[in-house]
Specification:
Two copies of one chain form a homodimer. Chain A is α/β, with parallel strands linked by helices. Chain A has two domains: 93 residues, Ribosomal protein L30/S12 (60s Ribosomal Protein L30, Chain: A, 2-Layer Sandwich); 164 residues, SPOUT methyltransferase, trefoil knot domain (Alpha/beta knot, 3-Layer(aba) Sandwich), CATH 3.40.1280. The first copy, chain A, is 34% helix and 18% strand. Chain A has a seven-stranded parallel beta sheet, sandwiched between helices. In chain A, helix 3 runs parallel beside helix 4 and helix 6 runs parallel beside helix 11. At the A-B interface, helix 6 and helix 11 of A face helix 6 and helix 11 of B.
Chain lengths: 278, 278
């Protein structure tokens, strides 16, 4: 057995640590992926994995061995580390003893043409896009990407100043969603123009006064659900340019939902009407 | 103006810090509540506030002044602190400069008789209870309490080893839900017996194979939705004793939802059928 990497100053340890920041991710073109399940999701989605680090002392269980086998079959470099080096890779690193540096990149709005089904096709669900407006909370962002993936969205679009898609907390909360869905950053104006060009109806989520989502069906040409942040909601520029505003009926008018829960309920309702529901 | 509390060793600073742990909360019978909005929610819900700490340097804005006015009207003791003392109160304390030590207590299953509407009453939604089985994640727990509050649940029950209702992260994620809803801890056996005695149908959420929640209506006698943790789901003892298992139809069979999002969708569906929807 080769000697384990022990130094917290090792090149790969430092590189992985740098990937905690947007700057570091841009520099190396890599993203932090931690834990057995998440690495397994990356493999299943065919993500390009630059290298994997394992801490043999921590890595245990059948699933972990399966994941390692698959990594070795794909000729991905595997670095073995002591606990000292492994825990130095990240502030938030889990106890599972596996982490991967993955090549993931954002896409552009123009790239989405290929992932959108033609309008009025049977698989109408694929003409559904989730757009997040100035969403800063990484947990909510990741959870929404996960939900978008579960309900057959074609892509997730971040509008304006959002938390980065590849922030480690977003990746973790997405439960692999970031590996499966095209992720796009855009300005509001670009996004609105793109939706119009593609005959996609823009639905803006509002806490009151919109069309009840109980009455919602996916528009024929497709739909883009725009969610704001919990703190600020959506600004007038979005509300006036949206085709429809949508509200979730609630028991108490004064109550509110977590933004990710609200997105889940509306996507569920839209998805329910489509042919993709099993 | 009286002198500001500056010492990180001040009695109240130490007491508040102790409330971060379950042991400390049990010792003092108090719960940490931080931030302008959350203190406002506590006031609105008529929570018994033992004392409030403010950091005048940080506390700004119209809403903060409103909250302070109301606190003073209620004769709640207000302690003014320097930034040094205020930030020593908590590891996670927000930048808003207000925190309250609140008297909140758990309720017992027997206490719920008074909050449940009679069976077959018009306000059938109030015979809806959310039960969380061995849920460890404070963010998910808090978000689910918030959702239960928004969809008119009568109470939230924690079954087995759950994260404490009054963990500061739960309180924060609940967005005030913990102030409004009766919160009960119970064993599974006690809970199952209580539901049977009260003619409440037990609905267990499962990732596949259950009744699609699209077909779900609140049972006549009321319903208790039982959610498991994301990691482990619900054990056989719950699944076999439940009256109905419930599943959310999804686009991709292999995908999963965040536990709080899943709870939100099912509660939304159950609530939709009730008379309480506006």
């Amino acid at each position: 057995m080769r000697q384990l990497i022990d130094s917290p100053h090792n090149k790969h340890v430092r590189q992985f640590r740098a990937l905690a920041t947007k700057k570091g991710r841009a520099k190396y073109g890599l993203v932090q992926v931690e834990g057995v399940r998440l690495v397994q999701e990356a493999l299943a989605a065919g993500v390009d994995i630059a290298w994997v680090a394992i801490c043999p002392y921590r890595l245990k269980g059948f699933r972990a061995r399966q994941v390692l086998d698959e990594i070795q079959q794909r000729n991905v470099p595997v670095l073995s580390m002591t606990q000292r080096a492994f825990t130095a890779m990240s502030d938030t690193i889990g106890p599972q003893g596996i982490a991967a540096a993955c090549r993931l990149t954002q896409r552009r709005l123009d790239d989405l043409a290929s992932v959108l089904a033609p309008p009025k096709a049977a698989a109408a669900g694929r003409r559904l896009v989730l757009a997040l407006y100035e969403l800063r909370d990484p947990g909510n962002m990741g959870t929404m990407i996960r939900t978008a993936n579960a309900f057959g969205c074609a892509a997730v679009v971040a509008i304006g100043e959002c938390v980065d898609f590849f922030n480690p907390k977003v990746v973790r909360a997405s439960a692999g969603g970031v590996f499966h869905l095209p992720l796009v950053s855009s300005t509001w104006d670009e996004f609105r123009a793109w939706a119009a060009q593609n005959e996609i109806t823009v639905l803006a989520a509002v806490t009151s006064g919109g069309v009840p989502c109980t009455q919602l069906a996916l528009p024929a040409g497709g739909g883009a659900l725009v969610m704001g942040s919990e703190a600020h909601g959506l600004p007038d520029v979005v509300l006036t340019a949206a085709d429809i505003t949508v509200t979730i009926p609630m028991a108490g008018a004064a109550e509110s939902l977590n933004a990710a829960v609200a997105a889940g309920i509306i996507l569920y309702e839209i998805n329910k009407g489509s042919d993709r529901v099993k």
